[in-house]
Design brief:
The protein is an alpha/beta fold. The chain is 24% helix and 28% strand. Strands 6-5-4-3-2-1-18 form a 7-stranded mixed beta sheet. Helix 9 runs parallel beside helix 10. The radius of gyration is 22 Å and the shape is globular. The protein starts with a strand and ends with a strand.
Length: 304
């Protein structure tokens, strides 16, 4: 199967620590790289993970709290210094547009590449990016200012040719694409060989949902039904439930409840409060509700 991975660059929350960088991660899909959120230090983390700067084609910002976007202008500036020529697409809440344009005017001059900003309606679920292999849609979230998550859906691939059957019927390679698309084969004697005998099903499409800062939303699972991997903020444990409610964040148990209700296959926890020196307590809390929960950490890579 083609790679579909999540590279964690930062999984801390607003207060800087020596242990965690602010929110940022790279979603790798079939050779394409997409950056999701861009806190301080993102470009340093890209260097450490040896992911190629030039391959980042789009950036998706969930909201304009600093720990999710302070690294964006610095990274764009570095792209310019590296001689980037390919367009960079930036998706985010409408309020990010004027900020980015002012920063570009102040700090980014005579670059050989274009930065195109696409405002996102954070209140709707809609497809905002699409290519031949992938679609990205928004996930409405509830935070202290407009905020959304992003759902990366892999498009189905064509069926696989059963080479032993194709060789038996001496089917030319030039006809393989037609058969993958669903065509039958007719032998020189007029026998119709059904497509079901000539092919085997392709792997089921995979999907990755990134749920940034949000309070617990009992209905959130409706947007996330059956996704392969879910990242859901788990800023606090149940010991700080009142803080979670006050600041529109979620606890690890609440994140696990969303994963359980959505019937996802894997839950990734992140956006940890700096008050937790050991996030194991958050993992233990989540596993009581959803067993296949995992902690994220800088430089970790997860297969979707």
């Amino acid at each position: 199967m083609e790679p579909f991975k999540v590279h964690i660059l930062g999984c801390g929350s607003a207060l800087p620590t020596l242990k965690h960088f602010p929110s940022a991660q790279v979603v790798e899909v079939r050779g394409k790289l997409f950056l999701v959120d861009c806190g301080e230090g993102t470009q340093i983390q890209l260097r450490r993970t040896r992911l190629r700067f030039t391959k980042v084609s789009a950036v998706f910002i969930s909201h304009i709290h600093g720990d999710h976007c302070f690294g964006l202008i610095g990274m764009i500036s570095t792209f310019g210094l590296l001689g980037r020529t390919a367009k960079l697409s930036v998706y985010g809440p409408a309020a990010l547009g004027p900020i980015l344009r002012q920063q570009m005017a102040d700090f980014c001059h005579d670059f050989d590449f274009e930065v195109v900003f696409y405002p996102v309606d954070t209140t709707r679920q809609q497809v905002i990016y699409e290519d031949r292999s992938l679609a990205v849609e928004t996930i409405p979230l509830e935070h202290r200012l407009p905020c959304c998550g992003y759902l990366f859906r892999e498009k189905p691939t064509l069926s696989h040719i059963r080479r032993d059957v194709a060789d038996f019927y001496k089917i030319p390679v030039s006809h393989f694409n037609l058969i993958k698309a669903g065509a039958d084969w007719i032998t020189p004697d007029g026998e119709v060989v059904p497509n079901s005998r000539l092919t085997s099903p392709s792997e089921p499409p995979r999907s990755y949902a990134y749920c940034s800062d949000t309070r617990y939303m009992p209905h959130l699972h409706k947007y996330l039904h059956d996704v392969s991997t879910l990242y859901h903020e788990s800023t606090y444990g149940e010991d700080n439930l009142l803080l979670a409610e006050k600041y529109y964040h979620s606890t690890a148990r609440q994140a696990a409840q969303v994963a359980h209700d959505a019937n996802v296959k894997q839950l990734l926890l992140g956006h940890y409060s700096s008050r937790y020196e050991d996030e194991q307590v958050l993992l233990d809390e989540a596993k009581k509700v959803f067993l296949n929960s995992r902690l994220t950490s800088e430089s970790a890579v997860f297969d979707v």
